[in-house]
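Postdoc handover notes: sequence design on the structure in folder B. Input tokens:
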């Protein structure tokens, strides 16, 4: 009986010490705000031009899904400032996606073709304004 009590007291001491050590850490924990929720934009490539909707948003992460509604495959380029992101070629009736965090500025979304075409497809313009609100108050986010 005496031996069991000593073993129990030793085990409790070790568990208690581990709990105290686990509670120790940096006192200057930086509680950084979470980034803004990614905005999902849609784009369409048509013979008459490329369009992106909405065409004006605040700065932050973006996911742009682009549908090719032409009869030819196209490479899509998002370009502006120091950003240059390409996807494709996107086959006819298929989609491609560009995921990028964009600072304020003006960007073009262009559709290019590997072969010569009669006329270039006019690009879409995306205007990115001031930073969007952080997502610290949003529930059910990963």
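Designed sequence:
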């Amino acid at each position: 009986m005496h031996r069991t009590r000593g073993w129990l007291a030793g085990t409790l001491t070790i568990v208690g010490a581990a709990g105290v050590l686990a509670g120790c850490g940096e006192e200057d924990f930086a509680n950084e705000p979470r980034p803004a929720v990614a905005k999902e934009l849609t784009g369409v490539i048509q013979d008459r031009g490329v369009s992106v909707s909405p065409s004006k948003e605040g700065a932050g992460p973006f996911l742009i899904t682009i549908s090719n509604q032409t009869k030819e495959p196209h490479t899509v380029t998002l370009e502006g400032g120091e950003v240059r992101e390409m996807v494709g070629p996107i086959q006819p009736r298929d989609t491609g996606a560009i995921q990028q965090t964009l600072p304020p500025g003006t960007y073009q979304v262009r559709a290019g073709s590997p072969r010569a075409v009669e006329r270039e497809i006019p690009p879409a313009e995306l205007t990115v304004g001031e930073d969007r609100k952080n997502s610290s108050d949003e529930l059910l986010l990963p």
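Context for whoever picks this up: The mean pLDDT is 80. Don't rerun without checking with the PI first.
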